[in-house]
Design a protein that fits this description.
alpha+beta, 2 domains, 11 strands, DUF2716 domain-containing protein
């Protein structure tokens, strides 16, 4: 069973090897603000997006519904972001995300799209990731939860919770009533890879070797977009598609 650590020093390397966001002269958030600089390759692991097959009007927007309206969902079918880009005649950029589609429509996305969850990996993606990560991992791993992901907090520091244990125990952590979803950061003792799920993003950032990225891309159940440290990831990141649709 994973052990909760009172000493938060194992997390220090992430602070040391990432760049702080410049909020005073903000020009966006980038991979380098979240994933340490030591890796040769980086990618976005896209959280699944689905179509509600009961909605036939593709022009109907979520913003056209009142908060008091009862929303009835029909059967769903997964659609890739790559196919969405094709459907909307958009570029499948490194910055592409569900926000590209939302920004295209103004303040909300189309009602027929069921957008991914932010801040946590879904169960299907988690189960696809684990065997790939395990094949590249020896020893135990660290798992960190931000303050916004814990249901109650009594630690003296404000860094959230940090756990240490076997990689496979991430599933039990994500099901615990102490947290909301999967950890925000996880990495092995040798720091060969690092995974980050941010509460403002509906995809997960990953840094590792070219071999790991290729294994992720080889899994048909995952949608992987290769990025670099300078790739912008905030909700207004996809400027190429935004400028092309003004």
């Amino acid at each position: 069973m994973s052990k909760k650590l009172l000493n938060f020093s194992p997390f220090q390397w992430i602070w040391d090897e990432t760049e702080r966001v410049d909020f005073e002269q903000w020009r966006g958030s980038f991979v380098k603000n979240f994933i340490p600089h030591r890796y040769s390759h980086y990618c976005k692991i896209m959280h699944p997006i689905h179509k509600d097959l009961s909605i036939t009007d593709k022009n109907l927007l979520w913003s056209q519904f009142s908060p008091d309206d009862e929303i009835v969902y029909g059967s769903r079918e997964r659609i890739s972001f790559k196919d969405l880009a094709l459907n909307y005649n958009l570029k499948y950029t490194k910055e592409f995300s569900s926000r590209t589609i939302i920004n295209l429509h103004g303040i909300s996305g189309p009602r027929y799209l069921l957008f991914p969850a932010e801040g946590t990996l879904d169960g299907e993606t988690l189960q696809a990731l684990l065997p790939i990560l395990q094949s590249f991992t020896t020893g135990s791993c660290y798992f960190q939860y931000d303050l916004v992901a814990v249901n109650s907090y009594s630690e003296k520091h404000g860094n959230g919770y940090l756990y240490y244990g076997d990689l496979g125990e991430v599933s039990a952590l994500s099901e615990s009533a102490d947290h909301i979803g999967t950890p925000n950061y996880w990495w092995p003792e040798n720091r060969d890879w690092c995974l980050h799920t941010n509460h403002d993003l509906d995809f997960t950032l990953f840094g590792g070797s070219i071999q790991m990225i290729q294994k992720l891309k080889d899994d048909d159940s995952l949608e992987i977009i290769e990025v670099d440290r300078e790739t912008r990831v905030d909700p207004k990141a996809d400027v190429k598609n935004e400028s092309g649709n003004r």
